[in-house]
Every structure is written in C-alpha cells, then in structure tokens.
Amino acid sequence: MQPNYFAVFREFARNSLVREMTFRGNFILDCISSLSWVFMQLGLYLVIFEHTNQLGDGTGWSRWPFFVFLATTLFVNSLVQFFFMTNMEELSDLIRTGNLDFALLKPIDTQFLLSMRKFEWSSLANLVFAAILLGVALTHLDFTPTPLQMLLYVFYVMCGVALLYSLMIGLGSISVWLGRNESLYDFWFYITNFSRYPMEIYSGPFGTPLRLAFTFAVPILLVANVPARLMAWPLASQDWRLAAYAAVASIVALVASRKVFYKALDAYRSASS
Asked: Which of 114, 118, 149, 255 is 20 to 30 A from 24, alpha carbon to alpha carbon?
C-alpha cells in the first residue's frame, strides 16, 4: 500500500513544532538571531541608499524595487531553511555513520523522507518579516502589480526554492563518495551569496563571466532575480525568455538532482557491508 505522503508531511511538521516548543527559550532566541541578521542587512542597504539612488548605474534597482528584491531573497531563503536546511546538513552524518540504513528500510520514498524529516520553525520569523517588507515596498512603487504578476511571483518563488533545494540535495549526495562533507553549509553560503544581488551589477570583464556562469551553468542568479523583476516592474518590460528559462531550469534541476541522489544511493555501502 502506498503511504499517504501528505499525512507523513503533516506528522513531520507537527513533531518538529512539538520539539521546538519543548525548548521555547531556544526557539525564541533562534527567531531573534535570525531577525537580527535580517535587520542588519536592511540597515546596510538603507545606509547605501542614503548615498545613491540606484544599486548600480542604469540598473533600475532604486530603493523600493530593490527592497522588493530583498524581500524575495528572504522569502526563498527562509522557505529553504524551513523545509530543507537542517535535513541536508544532517545527510552527510547519516551517510558517514551508516544511519542512512534506517531510512532505506522505510516503505517510503527515500528522498522525501530525508528531505522532510525536520522543519526549522524559527526560520518563519524571516518569512513574516519578508512579507511585511514586500508589502511596504509595493506601496512605494510607481505602479500596482496586477493579479497575474502576483501569481507569477508566487510561482517563481517556488522555482527559486526548487533550484536551491536541487543544489543542496546534489551537494549532500556527494557525501557518499567523499565520506565526509562537513563543508556543505560553508560552500552553500559562499555560492548563494551571488544570488543575493541583482544580476545587472555583474558586468564588465569580471562580472559578465560570473553573471553568465551563475545564470546558465549554475542558475542561482535566477532564484530571486526573476520573481523580483516580475513584481517590481511592469510586465511589458520583462525578459520573458529569462522567465521561461527559469521555469525550465527548475524542472531540469529537480530531475537532475534526483538522478544524482539515487546514483549516490546505488554507490552507498551500508554500515553492515
């Protein structure tokens, strides 16, 4: 009999919330810590916009459109942290210690089980802040986004989550061949730093190759840029080819990462072997 994945998902979420509420002081401190980092980011950009009208000459990313971009980045990252970050950080240890055996014995899709075992509820504090920041930024734009733009925004935020998740599960799967992959979080932080800024700032002899590489080879620049563009500017000004590529890239990334994951499982040697 096929498992009820929604029921399993709901149970994982409930158990994670119960675990978080068991140590409420730690939960509150995690929320405060996350929000402190976000407020420091916002403060930095407020200082920057005191000295310039746009983030890069001719990019179009003035104060309020850029805050739409910043809110989008927070949306994507907080969703990734809520659903996947803790699980992907533990994947390396499961492989190294042989505890992955217990996951393989469960009558449920292994990738689903390993990706959804735990939820980081404190990351939702950033999600709430992102919603407030987005709402404030939208009231200061020169136009009102249409319902179509809002629907596309939600869709492309999900595409961004899919792209980052695909990168994470791919990196985590490498542990099967490396034995240890404890630098996953560090590498994740370094490479996703490129996605925190509008792609227009990557120009010139050094920036252009980076923009091309992180748009088409490892498409992390699409994570926040596409949904933020669709919300911050009129639809007529958008590059629809880039939007179409983002949708295709997210599907390809999910399929490719799943193949890498199960290729890694084929190479995995259990603790008893």
From this structure: 114
Query: What is the C-alpha to C-alpha distance for residues 174 and 95, in angstroms, rounded to an integer?
Result: 10
Please tell me the predicted confidence (pLDDT) of residue 234.
78
Burial class of residue 222, CB neighbours in 10 A (0-12, 13-18, 19+): buried
**Tokens, residue 219:** 């498409």
- The secondary element (H helix, E strand) that includes residue 25 is helix 24-48
Query: Which pair of tokens denotes residue 142?
Result: 């020169």
Residue 86, phi then psi, degrees to nearest 5: -60, -40
The pLDDT of residue 271: 58
Give me the mean pLDDT over the 187-207 stretch. 82
**Among the listed ranges 2-6, 95-99, 221-225, which one has the minimum average pLDDT value?**
95-99
Residue 144 tokens read as 């009102």
Distances (CA, A) of 130 to 20, 45, 154: 22, 15, 13
Residue with tokens 């000004």: 237
The answer to whether residues 200 and 59 touch, using CB atoms and an 8 Å cutoff, is yes
